[in-house]
Amino acid sequence: MTATPPGAQDSADRDGTGLVLAGATVVLPTGTVENGRVAVDGTRIAATAPEHARVLDVNGHWVVPGFVDLHNHGGGGASFAGGTAEQVLQGVHTHRLHGTTTVVASAVTGDLDFLARHAGMLAELAQQGEIAGIHFEGPFISPCRKGAHDEQLLRDPDPAEVRKLIDAAHGHARMMTLATELPGGLDSVRLLVEHGVIAAIGHTDATYEQTVEAIDAGATVATHLFNAMPPLGHRSPGPITALLEDERITVELINDGVHLHPAALQLAFHHAGPARVAFITDAMDAAGFGDGRYLLGPLEVDVEDGVARLVEGGSIAGSTLTLDRALKRAVTVDGLAVEDAVAALSANPARLLGLADRVGSLEPGKDADLVVLDAGFDVVGVMRRGAWVVEPRLG
Fold it and tell me: Which residues form a coiled coil (predicted)?
């Protein structure tokens, strides 16, 4: 396969006559179609093949929607949480090479003024269509469940400060993770909902009852379910039970084989159901790049054998996951149905983000965002808005 380099706007030469991918197993919202066809006309998926369209034989392959990552801190050696615009684009391109055609840039806990300034830069990239918006993970989280966040910079979720970050994002704030049991937490959830921002419960020490209160106030996402929250107990069911049982909640899962035992993933799918699961990467700079020492916000991280841990304390510090690996593991290791795994990478997060009219499924009129996979679920082609990011080289 070949990949267009960063700076080439992820575009390949096209003759403008359209394209038909023929012969693949195609995953559609209505089910999987053998020997299927996907027509592309310009930047969109077409209902019928454009006149004089070129036909690409992808027999023996899968064609699935482009992946949508709603929680991602970087990749390719670059950080979304503190990097320059050029570095953010480098990280975005890295994830595109692995099939993620839509990505939300996640910030980590930092000084409030810095976060506001950085949000302004990310908002410009969102305006340009390079990212799908901004996710603030911190600083309004629990010191008891801080994970890889700097405890010195944590604070209670003051609605005025929450509003400052919303305003700094200039309409591109998509989600904020809160420990909703902290003072100001419920009022902050209501404020987020009022401004069309997803309120996510995470890095929390909440009880079951406090979590139910937050859901009733408008929270709709569980930030990396199971991680950075109290475990499920038979007398203290905690947030996990409340988040799994409520139909209003979409649960994020990091399916890298490190953050979750396979049985935990199966538990989530069984109780939430496949329509309420969103696979995320929670990736940091090392995703698609390699082992070494990195910064996650102000904290040093060592990555060894693909596992990221804080230098001080050893807590897991995000992941080096890309969504193609999450899909392959879901199908080949966890035994999930391909349709359910694909929905968790595409339709479910797209719907949650309010982008389902454009991305998340292979339907006429939507952006021509798609991934070509071989029989072993490895990426051989990636198209974004009708242009090849990774152009398949098929025998």
Answer: none
